[in-house]
Amino acid sequence: MKDKRKESSSSQNPGSLCAPLPHLTCFGCCPPIRPAHYDPLDHVRILRREFRENRKQIQQEGLHFRPIVGYSCWALGFLGDDGKRAGCLLHPFQNEGTDFRHLIDYGGKCARETCQAARFFLTLPEEGKIFWLELAAGFQSFFYSSLRANPLFHILLWGKGVLEPLRFNALARDESATELLHRFPFLFRKDWNPRAVRFLFRVVIQEMISPHKPERPLPPHDEHFHPKGLEEDQLLQSLCASILKKCEEQGMFYDSSDDLFSKTMGKGHSRCFSSGQTGADPSSGPGENQTLTHLLDAKEDLRDFLRLTLKWQKTSPNFAHWVKEKVALWAKEAVRARREKKEAS
Ligand code: SF4
Ligand code: SF4
Predict the structure, then answer these.
(1) Considering only CA atoms, which of 196, 199, 200, 221 is closest in space to residue 210?
(2) Does residue 26 line the site of ligand 1, with CB under 6 A?
(3) Which of 7-11, 44-48, 232-236, 323-327 is least confident?
């Protein structure tokens, strides 16, 4: 929440997603306790009145402890008399560095927690933040705070590993974020769960658009990948879908017909290596040191792929490494096959 705003608010240096630009402030996670699917855009008229009243009340009565009542927080209000920006009136930014959020009963939670999009935003370089913020350039606080309306809440979940190569690709073509999004609409398609598959997309994107120099900007006109319109997007999605199919064929997905123990500790993983296994030590199956997947010492996107896509609750570094190598190999093969097909045609 607002604690993560850090020293933002210069148009050249957007610190956090919570208040990245002088005119942009978010209150999307306020208050912390509210109904699922709550969206401020559904209550704009009521909230506008509340925000005006909350600001006025604090100005008249000063600050003192009061609990949150119902689903509205008395500290959420307009940050200026013009009623344009809304946010937390107890946040240090509004109080010369002093944090007054302990004056509500969920203050600790407010100061501690942040949404995933804001967390991923912080991992981007400043240039990356500025690039993607273009998508919310004209928003006001209500629209910007809406999980439904603000595309950044979904797009940022693709993470740095996907967003940065695509940004380099856009820069090489003199494209804006909007134009890039037009070329790669998968970024906001809701039928992909970015957190679950961003590892897969990262690997395929790296292989597909800059196979020899993965850290470099993508060439504007790759000799093999310069399809027009949405073809790039469709190619990327079909390559990823084909690799997921291979995962299924290899028995990598958690099978709910097995019992939990065999799935997470032994039999299930053994089955994962039933064919074509390389890289890891498949013989170490049930006896190998397993850990909860989200605690595994591996990149977060790989952990999320194992946990959210393959549904592994526990695994070991060896198994995780095997999946990583296998997906990388399949991506390489799929891209090479595509390239050869194109050359032959
Ligand atoms: S919803 Fe996310 S971006 Fe918005 S204020 Fe909360 S943590 Fe910040
Ligand atoms: S105290 Fe501030 S951050 Fe916490 S719910 Fe209220 S307005 Fe939001």
Answers:
(1) 221
(2) yes
(3) 7-11
- 235 falls within a domain: yes
Q: Tell whether ligand 1 has an atom less than 6 A from the beta carbon of residue 28.
A: yes
Residue corresponding to tokens 């993965």: 214
For 272-330, the pLDDT digits (tens) are 443 333 334 333 455 567 889 999 999 999 999 999 999 999 888 888 999 999 999 99
The pTM of this model reads 0.85
Distance from the CA of 245 to the center of ligand 1, in angstroms?
35
In a domain, 129, yes or no: yes
Nearest-atom number in ligand 2 for the CA of 106 is 4
**Same domain flag for 64 and 176:** no
* CA 252/CA 269 separation, integer angstroms: 8
- With respect to residue 204, please indicate whether it lies within any of the assigned structural domains: yes
Q: Whose CA is nearest to atom 4 of ligand 2?
A: 110
Q: How confident is the model at residue 108 (pLDDT cuts 50, 70, 90)?
A: confident
Give the mean pLDDT of 227-235: 74
> Is residue 145 in a domain?
no
- Quick check: CB of 20 below 6 Å from ligand 1? no
Tell me what pLDDT residue 231 has. 83
Residue 264 lies in domain: 151-345
Domain count, the chain: 2
Distance (Å) from CA 176 to ligand 1 centroid? 24
